Here is the input.
Amino acid sequence: MTNLVLFLVLAVVAVVTALGMLLSRNAVYAALFLVLNFATVAVFYILLEAPFIAMTQVTVYAGAIMVLFLFVIMLLGAERLPGTEPLPWQRPLAIFLALVLAVEAGYLLFARRAAGGMFASAAPDFGSPQAIGTMLFNRYLLPFEVTSVLLLVAMVGAIVLTKKEKGGRE
Amino acid sequence: MTQADLYTLLPLIVLVIWACALLLVDLLIPRGRKGITAFLAALGLALTLGLTLAQVSAAGTAFQGMVVLDGFARFVNALLALTGLLGVGLAYGYVRRMGIERGEYYTLLLFSVAGMMLMAQAADLIVVFLALELLSIPLYILAAFARPKETSEEAGLKYFLLGAFATGFVVYGIALTFGATGTTSLSGIIAAASNGDAGLLLTIGAALILVGFGFKVAVVPFHMWTPDVYQGAPSAVTAFMAAGAKIAGFAALLRVFGLAFSSLSADLTAILWTLSALTMIVGNILAIAQTNIKRLLAYSSIAHAGYILMAFVPFGNAEVLPVSVAAGVFYLVAYTLTNFGAWAVVIALEKAEGRGLDLDDYAGLGRKYPALAAAMTVFMLSLTGVPPTLGLVGKFYLFRAVIAGGFYGLAVIGVLTSLISAYYYLRVVVIMYMREGEPERVSEPWLNLTWAASALAVVLISLVPAPLFAWASQAVFALF
Amino acid sequence: MLLQYIAIAILIFLSTALAGLVIVLGELFGPRVKTNVKSMPYESGMTPIGPGTRRMPVRFYLIAMLFILFDIEIIFLLPWAVVFRKLGVFGLVEMLIFILILLVGYLYAWKKGALEWE
Here is the structure.
C-alpha cells in the first residue's frame, strides 16, 4: 500500500518533469528538469529493489552525464532553442511511436496479465550490490580490468583532443 | 586467477603494461625527441610478438571462460603485433614531417593493438564488446590526430559517431542473444542454440551484431564513412586502421559467427552471400571514379572486405568452412602486407597540406624512382590479384574454397569484380610509367624498409605460399 | 525493505527544506527595490553589449569528461566495498590493479596540465 502511494506520487513527478524537459524553451532549464527526472527514476529503482542501479543512476547519470550535458549545451551556445522545428517529420513520428509503445504496454498489462503472472519474481538477493560485487570480482574479473584500460584510453583521448600542445611548457 | 590464466593472456597483459608505462615515460621525453617513444613502442610490440610466438602450448579457455588461447588466436595475435610494428614504422617519420608528432600517438596505437588482440582471444560476448571498444576508441582519436586540420577533425568525428552507432547495434544484438540463450559465453550460446530453444530472438540478435561488425569492417551498405575517414585521417593512421580493424573484425566474425552462431546458417548464409557480393561490386565500381589515391585505397579496402567476407559464406558447412576460413586468414596476411606497402608509397609521396595525393602526382615516378615505382606496381598487382603476387594466391585459395562450398555465383562475382579492379589499379601503374612528371619523394629509413620489405614479401611468399597456408590451416582447423 | 533508506529520505527532506527556508527568508526580510537598472546584468559598471550567453571554452568539457571517468570508477568501487571482506586479499589485488591503471591516467592528466585552469 505504501509502495503504491509512493509510486503514484513519484509517477506524477516523473511525468511532470519529463514534460517540463520537453516543453522548456531554454535548454538549460530542460537539462535541470532532466536531472529531477533522473532522480525520480532512481527512486523507482529503489522501489523495485535494485539499489545498485539506483546508485548508478544518481552518480553517473544525474551527476556526471548531466554536468557534461550542461557544459555541451553551453559550449555550443544553444541555451535558447530556435522557434522553428529543424526536423518537421520528427513530431508526428514521435507521437506515432509513443502510441505504439502505449498500446504494447497496455496489451502486456491487461491481456497477458489475465493469463497469469507476467514477471517471475527475482531472488531476494538478485541485483544487490553484494551480488554484483561477487559476480564482478570473480566471474567478470577480466572485463572489469579491461574497463579500467578503456577509461584510461578515454582519458588520454579527451586530453589529446582538447589540450593544446604548448611550446615552452611540459 | 591462476598461472594458466596469466599465461593465456601473457602477450596482451605485457602489451597493456608496456603501453601504460610508455604513457608515463613519454611525459619525461622532451618534444622533438619523440622518436624515443616510437622506438620504445616498437620494442613493446616486438616483445609481444615474441611472447605470442612462444605460446606454443595452447591452454584453452581462461579467466572463467572469458578468453581462449588457441592456434587461431596465436596466428592472429602474431599478425596483429606485426601490424602494430608496421604501423609504428610508417608513423615514425610521417608524424614528424606533418607536424603532429606527439608521444600519445604510439601509446594509443599500442592500446588499439591490445584491443585487437583481445578480440582475437574473446570467448564471451562481453569481452567481444570491450575489445571492440578498446580497439576503436584509440582509432577515433588517432583519426582526429592531425587537428586542428579540418579534414582530420571531420574524419575523427564521423568515425566516432558512426562507430558509436555501430557499437549500439552490437550491444543490442548481444542483449537479444543473452535474452534468447541466457548466456553471453560463446560456448554457452552454441549449447543453447543446439538445444533448439533459441529461435527468432537469437537470429535477430545475430543480425544486429552482424550490422555492427559490418560497420567496423566497412561492408556495403555500412561503408559510407570509409572514404571520408580514410582520406581525412593521417595516412599512417589509415594504413594501420585499414589492416588492423579488418584483422580484428575477421577474428570477431569467426569467433561469433563461424563458431557460436553456426546453428543459424540457414538464415545467415544468404545474408552473408549478399553482403559479400554487394561489397565487392560497390567497392570496386566506386573506386573507378577516384582521382585521389587515399580515396582509391579506401574503396579498395571496402572491396577487399567483401573478398574477406567470402570466407564466411560457406557457413554451417562443416567440411568447407574450415578451409575457407583458413583461406580468409591467408588473405588477411596478403592484404596486410600489400596494404602497408601501398600506404608506405603514398606516405613517401605525400606533402604537407594534403598535396601529393592525386593520381597525377604519380606521373613520372617510374623514371625518377624506379625502385619505388616497381614496389607500387607490385602492390597494385597484388591488390588486383595478378601473378606473381600474394594477392593472387590469396584470391585463388578463397575462390577455390567458395567453389568447393557450391557458391559458384559468388566466385564468378569475385572474378568479375577483380577484373573491374584491374582497371583502376593498373591505371596507377600506367600513370607512373607512361606519363611525364616530376614527383618528389621522401626517403626515410623506416619508410623505405616498409615498402621494400613488403614488396619483397608479397612477391617471395607468393612463390612458395604452401608453408604459410599450412600454418594458417593448422591454426584454423583446431577450432572446428 | 524500504525502511533502510529512511536516513536518505530524511537527508533529502532536510536539505530541500533548508534550501527552501533560505530562499523564503531572503524573500521575506531582504529589502527589494526593483528598477530596470538593477535587473541589468552586472558588467563592471558599463552597459552590457550583445547577448548574455556566450560559448564556453572547451576546457569545461575536458573537466566534465574527467569527472565522468572518475565517477565511473566510483561506481565500480561500491560493489567492491560491500563484499571487500568476503573477497579477501584477491579482491584487494584486483581493485589495486584497477586503481593503478586509472592512476596512470591521473598522473598523465596531471602532468599534461589537464587539471589546471590554463
About this structure: The two ends of chain B are 28 Å apart (CA to CA). Residues 150-181 of chain B form the longest helix (32 residues). The mean pLDDT of chain B is 91.
